[in-house]
Amino acid sequence: MNARFLLRPNALVLVRLAPAAAAGLLLAVTASTTQLVPLARGIAIAFIIASVLVAFLPKRDDVKTHGSVTAAVVAVAATGQTRTGLEYQVGAALFALLVLACLRAPLVAARLRASKAATPSGPWRGGPLAVLAVVAVGIAMTLVLSLPRLSAIVEREVQRLAGNAALSEEDQVGFNTKLRIGSLRNMLQRNRVVMRVSGEPVEYLRGAVLDRYDLRVWSTTQSTTVPVPANAPEEHATTRIEVSRAALAGRNLDPRWFLPDDACDLHTNSGRLAFDPHGAAHPLPSNEAREISFRRAAGGSCTTPPAPRLVPQRIDVGMAAKIHGELLPFALAWTHDATSQREALEAIMRELSHYPYSLDDRREGRIDPVVDFLQKRDGGHCELFASSMALLARSIGIPTRIAVGYRVDEVNAITGVSVVRDRNAHTWVEAFVEGRWQTFDPTPPSELAMRTRPTRWEHLSEALSFAFDRTINFFVNIGLARAGIFSGVMAVVLILVRRFIQKRRAAGVSRVATMSRPLPAFESLATALSRAGWDRLPSEPLERFAKRVDAAGEPWSTEVAEALVRYAELRYGGVGEERSVASRLEELARKLTPIA
Q: Residue 555 — left, alpha, or beta (φ > 0 → left; ψ -120 to 50 → alpha)?
């Protein structure tokens, strides 16, 4: 810290605020990389606020300094009450050095004031640049670390204004390793945006594959994941999926990538991901689920194979004998004319298409909901249609499982990007026929008609959220170090622009000062007119003096009057060229001199 800086007015105020600012920055850095304990985070924020208040409220300067430092130290200690990483350790060390400098600053200032040598020889020219650069770098670092969270909050609030409710944690169970029939019902009535898809369109995005059914609950028998590379060149991708920050703001204990079943040539920021044996993708690391790009295998050859698919070993996984006995009559009756497994599956889909679609389904009794749905034919949603088809096909020997994810059917009219909302959550069937897993969707098309179509206001709010998200991505993608460099350069540019403006203003002031003095040529003409008997009155404007001279009727009256008017326009209005006006005044002064 430059010692002469402490002699400037309000310098010690900045010194007292420095610990609070450093503690806030350290909290932002730690919170962006570590899941902080809510109590610790609350204590840290409270003491940062207290540090700012203590820097102003007490009367004694020493109490202000020591109080602000003490409160900031408590805030930093509270921030560290979790499993922190290298960022916190380095930041805490730098914070300790800053605290020592802040505690020493009042002593240094007192010594400088007490010493005769403390008189500054002149302002430090580099001070404004250094201060502005440091402030800009600090602001940039804070923005880079805090804007993603701010973006999630803003996007969530914008969507809430458009009538979208937040998704509770229990509503996300459908995308974990278990699905209880009926758990997606609330989700299907929400409008929150969870993903955006750009590029080649997709219809189904699978996030979980479940193959075991035990009376109302689907689960997976294979949950172990295998890491695989995801570093295909991004320029080869045909489709990109972005998870909205509003969706990332909620807790998700089992994050997933939602991909079509033929995705290959995958690219993620970390260059890797993991697949489970059913082909469901998981991000690596788990907090990276933000953007993924890929190529569709159906659109051409891929350098990396699509996701692995587990060949079924048993077709009756989780099938209870009682349920099997009640489902088999339906399956046999519906498929008696089928000559192949595909025809049998198509027959089951055809029969299910006659069942009504409804979100009002509430089957909470002891009867299995699939059996109850098939027997009563009183309506159900996609979970019941998919579960019914999967279990009916199993009962006649066809390996099946269900996939849970989203069905994409909305394109934003403003951005042209496909939008995936909570209400697009969907369940469908994957059957192992003709040597591979294939997709079958038994839910009738009436489901799409029942979904609420986005309004113009929802299109607009989504476009605003999309634009805000892209802006935040810019700051995040340039990185913390580059953000600091960028801010430093911007600080230099701002100072250079400021100096340029100051020079222009100084030049303008100099020009006005110069113009405030009469031209020597005008003084010569005024002297000649005075000798000829035409004196200008002390308070007489030039324009009125010119009219009086013009009315004199002398041979030179008109020329002199015109020259005086041109000089008045130059001096008071900045109109005309000084050299030509002065030349004309000199010419007329010489012309009048013999007369005088």
A: alpha
